[in-house]
Structure formats: structure tokens, C-alpha cells
Amino acid sequence: MSAVDERAVRRLIARRVAEWGGTEAEHAPMDRPLADLGMSSRDAVTLAGELSVLAGRELPATLVWEAPTGEALVARLCGPRAAAAAPVPRETAAAPASLPSISGEPVAVVGVGCRLPGGVHGPDDYWRLLCEGADAIRRVPEDRWRDFTAFPPADALPYGGYLDDIAGFDAEFFRVTPREAAVMDPQQRILLEVVQETLDHAAVPATSLAGTDTGVFVGVSAPEYGGLTGADTKTVDPWAPAGAALSVTAGRLAYVLDTRGPSMAVDTACSSSLVAVHHACVSLRTGESDTAIAAGVNLLLSPTVTVAFRRAGALAPDGRCKPFSAAADGIGRGEGCAAVLLKRLSDAERDGDRVLAVIRATAVNSDGRSNGLLAPNPAAQQALLTTAYARAGVRPAHVDHVEAHGTGTPLGDPIEAGALAAVLGADRDPDQPLLLGSVKGNLGHLESAAGIAGLVKTVLALHHDLVPPSLHCADGSALGGVPLRVVTEPEPWPRYGGTAVAGVSGFGFGGTNAHAVLEEWRPAPTPPARSRAALLHVLSDLDGERLRDTASRLAGWLRTPAGAGAHPADVARTLAGRTGRGARAGRGRRP
């Protein structure tokens, strides 16, 4: 068999990449998957045929899927001469003979990330907003509905928990072409960024997850962007279906990270992201996943749902949720994204991860036939709580705090409070009331991202050993005659049972209910050994310019009180967990 001309193969591939992506052939990246560079399935078949001509033999139509990059194709066709330039394929791990039975093990939260109203860009911002009792409700951004309607209806409520920017996206970082990024639902874009920030927070390099049994579980339910990108059939882009599909919200994340565990988008309306957490915990406890990403995202792109809710009388006139308040008058809508990185507790301890809190148990059930399709079911909520705390092995009277669904509706809040009182209030000491809160008072109702926003709030509260306040109840709550109390000022965890214990609830208006039981994590009181050896502080980013920006931001943080108080060994370990990008720099120092 005669050798294939390597230069001819490279020229052909470069020309095709230039045609698909509108770039110059000499700049075609040969190390990236061709599908990322604009290649369609039809293009792949065509390219395989053209390469068959160069090779002088029939090549399979699936060639480009077996060798997905330009370099891999060169190695496949041209033999040893190009093999060194091609990425070495990972060996496929053999499936275990049986999955371990680990159903009772707690799940550790080792990293969190969030993008929320009020200028929240990460857990530090979120904790500051919570402790300050900040109200993040604002007027809708002026250009938010522009692409959907030039003249919003008069009853499109102009208030809510809106993000400052939903258009910005670092496509280059995630190696997404500008053409594809333009038709990607902003929910997909923001999710990629927040999950990357979550991995950074956990000091887990994204590259370390490639090929692993990492599960991806995403709560999402708003399909509005597809109505925009698919509105004109004459101009619809081939990437539009994938850009708008809710299923791809999770699938794209798994694709970018190259994870091999389960990947699913979960839509149970307002309980979506907490149900996603439940699936993540089940996957970890059964051994299906070794690491799990659980997230939720929701953006208010169009005024349509807001108008419908207002006409149904569901919205508060000022756009604010007032959970358990005597002034409760409906929900206020909100948007945002949050994520957590989860591991089995024993694995997190083995890996030396920082454990922020542990999830002892989760439960999910349905309202069944309630008093109406969208009406809550008190009996189902009580059954959910009973199941969750029985699985956790926690006495109901020892639960300190519940981050409630608490939307501020005259019907939903009393039903939820009644269920909590029936299950967690029974046999409770009058001096030990169940503390209640709901972050919807700060942010609005984030719908498919509401549960994960409440979970991250609770994780931060356990980690910082402080229960933050819930808004809009300072002048009185609607609770009466029940052993419950809304937290209106920051206060320490009461630890009724000796350990700080909290619950988080999420209810979907289609009837799916979820609850998670969390505990503080107190590691063994052995001081960590800190080496006196020189430490290497490693920085990395895509290129030199970004690397300099990263170094500048790190230097600024080190001058803050938090940065100045951080131990050099901890800084070095965190930075080491963020390596694996293109440009790197390092500096050694002694602790």
C-alpha cells in the first residue's frame, strides 16, 4: 500500500475547515475536533470521500468520528510520520464487574459557583449579599425584550431579579466558534462559565475530569431562545437546534469536559435544579458516578411568561417575593445560575478536598391528584419530609433551619409551613423553633434554578457557621401557632442536636417536590501538616495576555484582608487545581 501524501492531507483538511468556519486555511487549528470548527454530518461524509481519493482506497464514512481532529486524521492516514503530532487516545476503561453498594454514604459539597442578581459573581459575593440582607430586585434591563417584541404589553411587569449581563460569553476559552456561539441559548453559555468557576472554586482542574465517570445533572426549563433563533426559516442556522435544545444544556457541558458519566437535563419546573441534585446524589451513592456536577440555570429572555403569570394574578405588583410575610402578595420572577461539585465523602477526604458541607439525604415525590394541576398537596409535602429525614437518620426535632420553597404566595406558603410544622415541629421544645428562610426574598423566584440557589445559600451558611436573614418579615410573619420562626437577622446555628442540620425544599408547579438534608462538616481536629519546603505558585490561562490579567487579579486579591490572611500553601494548592490551560507561569516561595 503506497504512502499517503501528508502535506496533501493537511492542505485538504485546512481548506475545508476554512470553508466551514470562514477562516484562513493557514490558521486552521488541527488539534481541535472538526465538529467544533463548523463541520456538519454531511461535511464529514464528504471529507471522508475526498480523503479516500487521496488515500487511493475506500475509507469508512465514519472516519471523521473515529479520528475527530485534523492531527488524528493525519496520523490515521499517513502512519508513523504524523503519529507524534496526534493526540494519544485514552484507553477505554473496563467496566467494573459490579457497582459498589454505598447507598448510605454522605455526599460532600467540595465546590460552588453562581451568577445571580445583585451583581453576584461567585460565592463570596453571594455570601456578602445574604449577610447584608440585600434586595436585588430591579427594573428589567432596557434592551432585554428587544429581540422578542418592540412594544411589550402594558401588563409585562417591569420588575424582577435580573442579571446585569447575559450576552457576554468567553467563546474562545471554551473553543466555541463565533457562529455557533451566536445561536447558543445564553443559558448554555452562562452554565459553561459558572461550572468552570465551580471547578476552580474546588481546585479541580477541568482537564482532570476528561474520560472519568463524572455525572452532569442540570435543572433547566425555559426554552425561549429557540423561539428567536428559529423564528425565520429562511435564515435559520444549522447550529440553531442544538443551541436551543434544553437537552444539550447538559450535553454540551459533558462534551466540553469530556465526561463519561450520565448527562441529563432535568425539567420539573421550579424544583428542577433540586431534583438534579437528587439524581446526582443517587448516581454517586450507587457508584454510577465518581464525581457529579449539579446545576440549575434560568434566564428571563421574553416577557411572555411574565405576562401570563400577571394575568393569572400570580405576580406581586412590586416584583418581590415576601416569603412567610404578612404582606405576601405573589411571586417575583428572577434569573441566574448556580452549580455545585459533589463527591462521596470518603473520596473527598481521600483527595484532600475542602468539604463545605455534606448532603445526608435527598427525596423526591409527586403531588399526584391534588386540588388542581398546579395546586400543592399538603399530604405529599409531609410525606416528602418524612422520607428525607428518615433516610438521613436525623430526628425531626433536631433540624435547625429549612431553606424553604417560600415564594410569598397566600396559598403556597401556609401549606408549606403547615407541612413543616406537622413533620419537623412535632415534639419540638418551644424554645427550639424551626428556623425558616427563603432566598427568594433577595433574588426573586429563579424557577428552574431556585433549588440550587437555595442549596448553595445553605452550604455557605453551614460553612460560615451563620444563618443569614430572610427579607420582608421584619414587620411580622404570617406564621401563627406553629413552632416555626422566620430568621430576620443574622444569627448563629442553634445546633439543637449538637450538629448544625438544615433542609432545602423545592416544589415544581407540575407537582414534583424535592427536599435535601444537609449537615455541617467538622473534620477531625488534627492540624494539617504544612511543609517548610519551597512552594511553587503556578498560574495558567489560554495565552500570555490572559495570563497577565490572571496574575494581576491574583495580586489584587492578595492585597485584600482575605488574601493577606490566606496561607501560602493553601494558595499554591488552589492555583495548582486551576492549571492545564495554554500559557503558564510560576513563582517559588517559602511558606
Can you describe what's shown?
- The protein is an alpha/beta fold and 591 residues long.
- It has 21 helices and 16 strands.
- Strands 1, 2, 5, 6, 7, 8, 9, 10, 11, 12, 13 and 14 form a twelve-stranded mixed sheet that branches.
- It is globular.
The number of distinct helices, counting runs of at least 4 residues, comes to 21
For the report, how would you describe the main beta sheet?
Answer: 12 strands, mixed
Report the end-to-end length measured between terminal Cα atoms. Answer: 61 Å
Estimated helix fraction? 25-40%
Question: Compute the gyration radius: what is it?
Answer: 26 Å
Secondary-structure content class: alpha/beta
Shape: globular
In terms of DSSP E residues, the strand content is 15-25%
**Low-confidence blocks of residues:** 81-102, 586-591
Care to count the β-strands? 16
Q: Write down the overall mean pLDDT.
A: 87
Keywords:
alpha/beta, disordered C terminus, 591 residues
Task: Please write out the topology.
Blueprint: H1 6-21, H2 41-55, H3 63-66, H4 70-78, H5 80-83, E1 107-116, E2 120-121, H6 123-132, E3 138-139, E4 159-160, H7 178-182, H8 186-202, E5 214-219, H9 224-229, H10 240-244, H11 246-257, E6 263-266, H12 272-285, E7 291-298, H13 304-311, E8 336-344, H14 345-350, E9 357-366, H15 378-392, E10 401-403, H16 412-424, E11 434-437, H17 440-443, H18 450-464, E12 484-486, E13 501-507, E14 512-519, E15 535-541, H19 544-558, H20 561-565, H21 568-576, E16 583-589
Parallel strand pairs: 5-6, 5-7, 10-11, 10-13, 11-12
Antiparallel strand pairs: 1-2, 1-8, 1-9, 3-4, 7-8, 9-14, 13-14, 15-16
